[in-house]
Amino acid sequence: MSGRAFSRRGLFALAPLFLAACATTQQGAGRPQSATVNRVESYFRTVNLQDAPFTQIWPNGASGNGLITYRPGYLDMRFTAPHDMELKASGRSAVFTDARNGSETHIGLGHSPLGLLLGNPVRLSGPVMVTDVQQPPGLVQISLTRADNPSQGLITLRFRDERGVLSLYDVRILDAERKLTQIRLDPA
Question: In the record, which residues are listed under signal peptide (predicted)?
Fold first, then answer.
């Protein structure tokens, strides 16, 4: 895959954990169900993904994959395709390393959708605004943005809901330029 098919900007748009846009971006379309929001917050207090396989699809349609580690306040995405790359994030900053050319890029997450998922604990109130909650049978979908500047991006999390247990399987990030990045957690 050519270097043009993948850009650092596209990687940063992945923001994750996680981390692409929501199929429903109806801001203010009804009040989010607080019990569901509480369940998602609970999920993020206890989640500990360790070397979980993932596939990412960038806005240009290119894809990559690798392993992801995520726990409250920390994200490590190690790409094996299209080539070795790594994104490590914690708190309000991230470092992207491209093994192919040896570059290292430092990124502030204060205005990135990724920063929404790197609190410890993750809180879905205050600076984070829940814009939509959907609960079709067996699924939970919740969309988030920054309360002080929603135009900076939207992140939509999709969970399987089996017997009351949430399992994150899809993250969609819509960046400030309205470009969509999707991260799918592959079944183990």
Answer: 1-28
H/E segment holding residue 9: helix 8-13
Residues 41-89: tens digit of each pLDDT: 999 999 989 999 999 999 999 999 999 999 989 999 999 999 999 999 9
| Torsion-angle region of 126 (φ positive above 0: left; ψ -120 to 50: alpha; else: beta) | left
According to the model, what pLDDT value does residue 19 have?
A: 35
139: phi then psi, degrees, rounded to nearest 5: -140, 155
Beta strands in 72-138 (DSSP E): 74-81, 85-90, 93-98, 103-108, 128-134
Question: Considering only CA atoms, which of 40, 56, 19 is closest in space to residue 164?
Answer: 40
> pLDDT band at residue 23, thresholds of 50, 70 and 90?
very low
**Neighbour count for residue 102 (Cβ, 10 Å):** 7
Domain boundaries, the chain: 3-185
User: Topology of domain 3-185, per CATH?
Assistant: outer membrane lipoprotein receptor (LolB), chain A (2.50.20)
Give the model's pLDDT for residue 92.
86
CA atoms 173, 75, 68, 42: torsion sign = negative
Q: Tokens at residue 139, please?
A: 């699924």
CA angle 80, 84, 87 (to 5 degrees): 95
Nearest to residue 141, comparing CAs of 154, 116, 122, 158?
A: 158
What DSSP state is assigned to residue 28?
T
